[in-house]
């Protein structure tokens, strides 16, 4: 009776949620290699790490005609151009001297941007992130129930990446065997994705108090809401940051949001896995004076472990080998979803017609 219930849960949930898991799997597999296929000139330029050069670039951008960008994501070894993001959805790629290479009016103009919105929000920002998190929880349920169901037929297991034939029986067997092969990778992908959406669950993964530790480590210092200064010395601000953390690389700069009066600079220490780092500095928006600097290496162990969830999920560690591994996870999830949907909705609920028996002559 129990196995019958598990079977029904696995089949029906897979049939109803399969298309969402297919979308998440395929989009994730492509995004693992995002920087490699992003099309923009100068993408292979060497990264400039000098504070004066970075400050000069920021000064040029902030003093250019039109509104200043809300955020600057600085060049990295995998993508040697700076990305500028505006509050109204506009954006540009600029080389490290400040020359604009490509511009767009919305994320729909750039596949690497709308694909992130699809994978993270299902095009329903911001509530879509919760839906993706729920899909991740369902994915964990599917892996667990599928593994339980596979155990009954383990003696018939064969390593197969593709069905022997496109019959219902062969596809079901392929689904079962492929699923158990990539089950560990799927669990890793689902669990890290769920943790990023539902932070309180970090207490289960990393111990009680993880969410509070992370909130405390990311909470900005107290500073009154002030207007942006007109002639901020960006070079001095970048030099101050480099003096605070000589080995760290510049990763992003964000202007104040809502009622904040702080400019946020993120840097990445050599031993941080997180691509944009959690080493942070806050500058007063009106004067440019440093208010507080916080080294990611001084965070609690729980906060540091949580910071590593995204790089594990997005294959930002381990080089090409790990990117290939996570690509297989995404593609495998898509195959499982497609074949599950096909067998359920086209063949799964159709009883084969009985052949008429021929009476002997």
Explain how this protein is built:
The protein is α+β, with helices and mostly antiparallel strands and 361 residues long. Among the domains are: 1-32 and 126-197 and 315-348; 211-313, Nuclear Transport Factor 2, Chain: A (Roll), CATH 3.10.450. The chain is 50% helix and 11% strand. The protein has 12 helices and 8 strands. It has helices spanning 2-31, 34-37, 51-62, 111-121, 128-152, 168-197, 202-206, 210-218, 234-244, 301-307, 309-313, 319-348; strands at residues 71-73, 82-85, 91-94, 100-104, 249-254, 262-268, 279-284, 290-294. It has an 8-stranded antiparallel beta sheet with strand order 4-3-2-1-5-6-7-8, covered by helices on one side. Helix 1 (2-31) crosses helix 5 and helix 3 runs antiparallel to helix 9 (234-244). The longest helix has 30 residues, at 2-31. The protein is elongated, with a radius of gyration of 25 Å. Residues 351-355 have low confidence and may be disordered. Keywords: Membrane, Transmembrane, Transmembrane helix. This is PepSY-associated TM helix domain protein.
Largest sheet: 8 strands, antiparallel
Radius of gyration: 25 Å
Strand order across the biggest sheet? Answer: 4-3-2-1-5-6-7-8
Low-confidence stretches: 351-355
Name the overall outline.
elongated
Number of helices: 12
Work out the number of β strands. 8
Structural class by helix and strand composition = alpha+beta
Q: Please estimate the helix content.
A: 40-55%
The secondary-structure element order is HHHEEEEHHHHHHEEEEHHH
The span between the termini is 46 Å
Mean pLDDT: 91
Give the DSSP E fraction (strand runs of 2 or more residues).
Answer: 5-15%
